[in-house]
Write a structure and sequence with these properties.
The protein is of the alpha/beta class. The strands form three sheets. The protein has a seven-stranded mixed β-sheet with strand order 8-14-9-10-11-12-13. Strands 3-2-1-7-16-15 form a six-stranded mixed β-sheet. Strands 4-5-6 form a three-stranded antiparallel β-sheet.
């Protein structure tokens, strides 16, 4: 397909049709005056919305917060719950002891896809089911997005809404690459299919993905031993089991050092525990106030948080569904699952299995153990994002760069990418977790959607200012009629107003058309 920019309307191409891209597209296509913007989503999956996070078909992979707290529409918080009631899906296994529903992650993906489908059918959003190979800047300020079939999409504005890159293989495990039993990326379709019921399994990493692997193997009938290994041996925590407002104020005179911030959080946790409240609600306040906390920290202190505190933050912040927690607890009691604090020292294939050398935390001795399967769940290789299509082309052209703390791309507070000179690039935006290094906490569904809405509004404002010269037309796609689905709040708002609201001890008020609290599948 070749799409040349329309002389009368602005063309916005969104690269990535997962949750971030879906929210941006929905916001643009549903806004008043949407008929003067052409919205194209480049997404190879058959539907817009599920993305990597909600496309998994593993029965054990569940949303990490109750269904009652997840909805595509902030002005209708019961939308997903009502959809569940009418979707003719088996739901008994989704309920926890309190009656809260934690359905399978694919169910929420189906919900997102069905809610996006009317905009696609009407033509308000155009789904280009391909991968983007390159993105290049044109002389008139627009962009060409080249697709895998050789076609090109002309765009006035491009929004990068792709997911994180896959995990890198730790150097100590390099000798296992290509060996039977080594799984470098568990999110590849069928990654766990070859694991036998009695296999000895080592999971390298201890976050949400590791927990998902344990639950998935258990659901497939695995009865062998499973060891999850991380430097600190911390695994993801469960939910509090009760609802309460967030506790704590971390934005009044915000801390400017990682150590001072850590001490302040610990003091608040102790104060909460003194009145019978759980640490969960303190961490909820930290999460809600995350953008302001992050902006107050100098870059050197942000690096320190990432390097020294991120693993502790992740296991408390990204909580597992009760069903997954129950699997981990049961297998622990049975002696078929353990969490080990150790560092990897090396690995090699042998005739008896995969031999892994490790150094337990606090010990000078190196121990070796044999496993039949080694699964890598170390998290995204953030720095490799510019080595992969289509960002590689933008990086080579100097239009995108890595952020200063090692979490993704460098962006301005309005969502525009920063070029190699550190200046914002007109018409080129990032929505979602790849902007985490600048925005701060940007992994859960709530933060991702807030950011995506804000980027969409910034794009909408910029679209009214873009001046383009139409290129030579090869194929002109007919204009789509406007669509009123969703009836979002009108008007544009600055990104900084949306991503840095003051939360303090009370839940913050959500902007209109923002997805409500949830968590991403991984840390």
């Amino acid at each position: 397909m070749t799409l040349v920019r329309d002389a009368a309307r602005r063309t916005v191409v969104i690269v990535g049709g997962g949750c971030s891209g879906a929210v941006v597209a929905h916001r643009l296509a549903s806004a008043p005056g949407a008929d003067d913007v052409v919205v194209v989503v480049v997404e190879p999956r058959p539907e817009i919305g599920p993305g990597l996070a909600y496309s998994t078909q593993e029965a054990a992979h569940r949303i990490n917060v109750p269904a009652s707290k997840m909805s595509l529409f902030s002005d209708d918080l019961e939308d997903f719950t009502r959809w569940l009631a009418t979707a003719d899906l088996p739901g008994a296994d989704a309920l926890d002891a309190n009656g809260d529903a934690y359905p399978r992650r694919a169910v929420f993906g189906r919900y997102l896809a069905e809610r996006m489908a009317p905009l696609v059918r009407s033509g308000a959003i155009r789904h280009e089911r391909q991968r983007a190979e390159t993105i290049s800047r044109q002389r008139d300020g627009g962009f060409d997005v080249r697709l895998e079939d050789g076609g090109t999409l002309g765009a006035d504005i491009v929004v990068i809404a792709t997911t994180h890159p896959p995990p890198a293989v730790p150097q100590a495990l390099a000798p296992l690459v290509g060996q039977p039993g080594f799984i470098p990326d568990v999110y590849v379709a069928g990654a766990l299919d070859a694991v036998r019921p009695t296999d000895r399994v080592l999971i390298v990493g201890n976050g949400l993905t590791a927990a998902d692997v344990v639950a998935a193997l258990d659901g497939r009938g695995h009865v062998g031993g499973i060891t999850s290994l991380s430097r600190q041996g911390l695994r993801s925590r469960g939910h509090a089991g009760m609802a309460q407002e967030p506790i704590g104020d971390f934005t009044t005179a915000p801390e400017t050092s990682a150590l001072a911030l850590l001490r302040r959080i610990r003091r608040t946790v102790r104060a909460a525990e003194a009145v019978g409240a759980s640490w969960h609600f303190v961490l909820d306040a930290v999460r809600n106030q995350g953008p302001e906390i992050w902006q107050a920290l100098p870059v050197s202190q942000r690096r320190k948080v990432v390097r020294r505190l991120r693993s502790v933050w992740d296991v408390h912040r990204f909580r597992i569904a009760p069903q997954v927690e129950a699997v981990l607890e049961r297998r622990s009691r049975e002696g078929r699952y353990r969490s080990l604090a150790a560092s990897l020292e090396g690995a090699r294939p042998t005739s008896d299995g995969l031999e892994v050398a490790m150094r337990p935390r606090g010990s000078g001795a190196i121990h070796t153990a044999l496993f039949d399967v080694v699964v890598n769940t170390t998290g995204p290789a953030h720095r490799s994002v510019v080595e992969r299509a289509p960002l590689r082309s933008l990086f080579e052209a100097g239009l995108v760069g890595l952020d200063e703390v090692g979490l993704g791309l460098a962006v301005a507070l309005d969502g525009r990418t920063l070029d190699k000179a550190g200046d914002p690039v007109a018409g080129l935006y990032v929505a979602g977790p790849l902007a985490r290094g600048t925005v701060g906490e940007l992994m859960g569904l709530y933060e991702v959607a807030n950011h995506a809405v804000a980027v969409a509004d910034a794009v909408r404002e910029a679209a009214g200012e873009v001046s383009v010269s139409p290129a030579e037309v090869r194929t002109k796609v007919a204009a789509a009629p406007p669509d009123a689905h969703g009836e979002p709040e009108g008007g544009s708002r600055r990104l900084i107003d949306l991503v840095t609201p003051l939360a303090n001890a009370k839940p913050r008020r959500l902007p209109a058309s923002v997805v409500v609290p949830g968590t991403a599948p991984d840390a």
